[in-house]
Amino acid sequence: MKAIAISGSPRKGGNTDILLRRCLEHLGAAGIKTEFVTLRDKAIRGCIACGVCGKVKNKLCALEDDLNSVLTKVFAADIIILGSPVYFGSATSEIKALIDRVGYVSKSNGDLLSRKIGGPIAVARRAGQNFTYAQLAYWYTINDMILVGSSYWNVAVGRAEGDVLSDEEGLATIDRFAENLIWLGKKLA
Fold first, then answer.
1. Which domain holds residue 53?
2. Mean pLDDT of 109-131
3. Which helix (H) or strand (E) holds 43?
4. Distance CA 55, CA 91 (A)
5. What does the alpha-carbon distance between residue 29 and residue 37 come to, in Å, rounded to a whole number?
């Protein structure tokens, strides 16, 4: 079993990265192969709905940028975790470009994401986590994936790097989310 966590944060080592890595640590300790991917250093344009991925059927996007290197990792994973800080009330443009294009390629090639498991993580300094969480959660459900929950929504509070480490409820929620991913992954394996 393989898990991938994708950070849509443009900040290196920020709160989103911290929570995603924490989640992956739990999965790794349970024997699941893990990979952390950041979009910070990647050039990924938004989808232009050209439809080439549906005509060519090669499981890749026709736009020439950094998406395809991430795309192949996503399709190879059994567990997919998306993370985004909240920017002006929603997910970052980096993660939005990724989910639009990955979803389009998946749908155009026979639902490549179908029955994979995972869930989102959202972080904000004060508010907007719920909308961002929901925005990302919709991506799982429209792609026929199994959205895994926790004891609360997978959200945390923090602005400056490391602030989320003081959010005890947020950390407990992420830990339980990881436990649920492990539990479900083992049931489905």
1. 2-188
2. 96
3. none
4. 30
5. 19
Query: Using N-to-C axis directions, what is the helix angle for 168-188 and 15-29, rounded to 10°?
Result: 40
Q: Token pair for residue 81? A: 């975790």
As given in the structure block, the two tokens for residue 166 are: 């003081």
**What's the angle, vertex CA 6, arms to CA 55 and CA 38, rounded to 5?**
105
**pLDDT tens per residue, range 9-35:** 999 999 999 999 999 999 999 999 999
**pLDDT-based confidence at residue 147 (cuts at 50, 70, 90):** very high
Q: Which of 143, 150, 157, 142 is nearest to 173 (CA)?
A: 150
- In this structure, which amino acid lies at residue 152? Y
* Total of domains in the chain: 1
Burial 156-183 (b: 16+ CB within 10 A, else e): bbbeeeebbeebeebbebbbbbbbbbbe
In this structure, the strands spanning 79-85 and 33-38 are unpaired
| Sheet strands (E) in the chain | 2-7, 33-38, 79-85, 117-124, 146-147, 155-157
Q: At 57, is the pLDDT very low, low, confident or very high (cuts 50, 70, 90)? A: confident
The CATH number linked to 85 is: 3.40.50.360
